[in-house]
Amino acid sequence: DILVIGSLNMDLVTVTNRMPTVGETIIGKRFDQIPGGKGANQAAAMARLNGNVTMIGRVGEDLFGKALIESLKKDGVNVNFIKEDKKLSTGIATITVDGDGNNSIIVIPGANYGVDKDDIDENINLFNKSKIVLSQLEIPIDTVEYCLKIAKENGNYTILNPAPAKVLSYNLIKNIDLLTPNETELEIISGMKINNFDDVIKASKLLIDKGVKELIVTLGSEGSLYINKDIEKKFNAYKVDAVDTTAAGDSFNGGIVVSVIEGKSMDEAIDFASKVGALTVMKEGAQSSLPYRDEIDNFKE
Ligand code: ADP
Question: Where's the active site on this chain (predicted)?
Answer without folding.
Answer: 250
